[in-house]
């Protein structure tokens, strides 16, 4: 069964809404590329547009709670409108935007904060983006930002003491042995194939898929993942807590973050195997993330997964004790 660990909801000091500047910076650095991809490749004449409503349907997969999803949707709509203006269409379409994330995502907060001056109709679609979520040929543009690095589950081998890929005393595959990295890579290949398989059915003719995700360069091995330095403080803190008896060693050894950063070649291989998509642009952007993660950012992204795993009536200790290292 697929695991679900949403970002921390609401607007508190540890919420994703207040602590997603890293993702915002990365999206802003790729904005020009997103706009160019839409204006240069969107085939309007092929679109399955309803003749009555003249609607253009956009879905953000892994939208979380905002505000970054609203910024991205505005950028997409602006680029689509520009494409319409440069075509034979006289009027812009009506935009229907679907915000999609796991059922446990804080959709109440998301919709409470929808922009009042938005130029689109909004709807929420709960569910995993590894599965089909929309009717066949019903979407014109699928978008996902900083979500596809999340796996549907942690590879079972890395938490199995009898497996050669057992990742004892670690919570991530950075600097891990080859068997651990391969287990993560296989799980990501399976998940990304499921994502593109579902989107291939949902997209209308002439539609686009635009994805922004954490990755690594082709020349690097999985163990040299760029996100490694971000998780080292969390890992060392949990190890220290196990040594002090705050959490058990067994709990630590059975905990690995379900995240993987692929290379462009790995992504291209999965898409080509799917056979339903043409890659029109695939680029690696320079790293914009800072080398350290703060307590607030850690809790915004990982509080739910940490507390769920180490749930033994000491959840507050697990979170509070991470504070000194991550501040």
Automatic annotation (TrEMBL):
InterPro entries cross-referenced by the UniProt entry: MeTrfase_7, MeTrfase_capping, SAM-dependent_MTases_sf
Heme found in the keyword field: no
Chain segments annotated as transmembrane: none
Keywords noted in UniProt: Magnesium, Metal-binding, Methyltransferase, Transferase
Region (Disordered): 1-21
Domain of life: Eukaryota
Pfam families noted in UniProt: Methyltransf_7
SUPFAM superfamilies: S-adenosyl-L-methionine-dependent methyltransferases
One annotated GO molecular function: methyltransferase activity
Biological process annotations from GO: methylation
UniProt-listed PANTHER family: S-ADENOSYL-L-METHIONINE:CARBOXYL METHYLTRANSFERASE FAMILY PROTEIN (PTHR31009)
Full protein name: S-adenosylmethionine-dependent methyltransferase
Species this chain originates from: Cannabis sativa (Hemp)
Lineage: Eukaryota, Viridiplantae, Streptophyta, Embryophyta, Tracheophyta
